[in-house]
Amino acid sequence: MPPTFANLGDEAVLDIQGLRQLLEVLGNEGYRVLGPTLRHGSLVYDHLPSIDALPRGWGDEQQGGFFRLRPLQEPRFFGYGVGQQSWKQFLYPPRRRLWQARLQPDGLQILPVDEDAPKFAFIGVRACDLQAIAVQDRVFLEGPFIDPHYRARREQAFILAVNCGHACGTGFCASMGAGPKAASGFDLALTEILEGDRHYFVAAVGTERGRQVVSQIPHRKAEAAEQEAAARTTAQAAREMGRTLDTGDIKALLYRNYENPQWDRVAARCLTCGNCTLVCPTCFCHTVEDSSGLTGEQAERRRRWDVCFTVDYSYLHGGSVRATPRSRYRQWLTHKLATWIDQFGVSGCVGCGRCITWCPVAIDITEEVRAIRESEESGVRGQGLVTKQKTENDKRE
Amino acid sequence: MLNALADPMLPAPFRVLKVNRETGDTFTLTLAPAAGEPGFRFAPGQFNMLYVFGVGEIPISISGDPDQPETLVHTVRAVGAVSRAICGLKRGETLGVRGPFGVPWPVTKAPGWDVLVIAGGLGLAPVRPAVYHLLARRPQFGNLELIYGARTPEDLVFRQELMHWRGRFDFRVHVTVDTAKGDWRGNVGVVPNLISRARFDSEHTMALICGPGVMMRFTVQELLNRGVKMENIYVSLERNMKCGLGLCGHCQLGPVFVCKDGPVFSYDRVRDWFLLREV
Amino acid sequence: METLEPILAAHPFLQGLDSRHLKIIAECAAKVNFNAGEFLLREQEEAARFYLINSGQVSVEIFRARGGPITIATLVEGEALGWLWFEKPYHWHFDARAVHLTRVLALDVKALMQRCEQDHELGYALMKRYAHLLAVQFRVTILQLVDFYGK
Question: How much is the pTM?
Fold first, then answer.
């Protein structure tokens, strides 16, 4: 057993061999080790048998409606940003059977799904996604009711974060206070550094669980120069970031602008495909589907991710509450950036930029907010019904 | 292994004890747990998720008496696949029940107040538990009135009970319909217009309203005109719901989840969202 | 002889009217009772009287050749019936029947209109009340048309 230097809050240095062993240790401890891999030219989170499965030497190029992998000049393990997937697919699976039912002669019988929650180790969680996990924790674990399946997966998950060394093309995590540096919510957080011939990782220790894992692999305490190199790396990513979203007073801004004509303009472009909700790492809406077997003796209920852009989503007998694309886009954006704050005390957006990259018509959430803000500043604000009513009532009172 | 009891998505089987036909398409079902502890405790205004084997699950308000928890009573109108299946259940058959969910009517705050209960259509079902509660404690309240409207006399639910309530000397019951043929001796007119006939001290009046959105909007306006305070007007809202737990997202109305923050809201809390369109 | 002014003054429709005007209106008013089933007014008949209901219940109806009468509104104490008498052709568009014994103040429309012409202040005071009645009736009618209990 190598000597351990790392304590909680410390930074240790690992080399490539150390990273290799780190994954082995996690595997030996019974974790299903998951991380970024390449499949069919795209970035997919999947089982990582070893660090050799990581897309080493690959980077990404992202713009509105555009994602390409491209080879890097450097043999980086983590030289790309985030792809269309996020970790929510593991903690909150896209489809899950909730229970089965049997119709017995004496009536209905409900059979719970007995599931041993898988024990995941997530490798390469970016700061935006760490924040996204924290946001979903509030949704699934802090209300009057919780999702016990989410909790079982979440409690066991080991999180190895990786700080971003360059900004992904569409992200604006700095605006959302989420990144590019992982601040909390990880067991270990690595910063990958290439300096001349040296290729190493500075590992911040976030939890006791993280410390125990590090203690099993060769490492040493990071020196000041190495810590500075790590800090320079994330600072570089912050500098590169091309997008910003002004969150000042954003809840009130959007509450005032339910009737802004900008919603019509964006609705004219929006295909209501729901890609943005599926790639969003915080979107949590789901629906349930009931089915029965051919013999009529068995039935089951499944849960699957739902999309607030469908007409069905808000259906009540007689019709849909949000019948127009305008109202559905407005619901999505306003929920993400405004009502979410009232609901969960935090923004629903972490600035990962996925909704921009994966939108087939390149709608940009930061541009939409900017357009609404500017329309207000230029005095052509649409009728914010909320404000209007308040004014009328104030007069009355 | 998860503790099955901890999973709020698991329905419990209930057996149908009785089915009453209220109108052409509306039925009242009396239920009891198929196994285990008898009875079902709830507060007036709460709802359950009702599951019919293989068909699906929908939110339905509890329409029974909260002081008689031996049985669970639901009144359902057959308008969709699941509600039609519920209405088609026979005595002895079973269905799944999850609940009770939601914030109840503020009846515990009502002592010392005049209470106006205003319902339209099947909206009488979610307020009926509140009426039971209030009548069982009648001396605690001031003036107590019910205004109930439906499209035609044939659409009135709980007719026997309405007549019974009318027979009391301490409860004024106004029933109205939008249109009626010759043999209807009751009132014809819309619910909001009947508020002018109700007696109450607007300073100390609490209104409980449940009905179609348009009816509630106009009713709230009449109450405001009569000087009832916004924070004393309570509305029960309806939205698409899949979980009842505040997790599926479907029932959002601006910042609130109707399932866990409602369905009963004081009007001042939801006014802005209530009046917005397609929100 | 008993004066009708206090009864008129107590009716919500005339609330707030000054005594001079009440006196003029009283000259056009008479107390009338209708037994159950009696018509207060009938479609196509001349709109000769305007009613302020003091007690009872009146159903306003449209008669259908097949299917008989259909009730479109019910009026009770404190309400006014016959609000189309300012409008040509000065006849009723509906039927109105007493559901049970109904006591009303009947106002003679011709006399009342004459006095309104002579005294525009009275005319305006009545018109304001009239406009309110119409506005309420308009809203109610729209709501009935909406059929908000619909499936």
Answer: 0.90
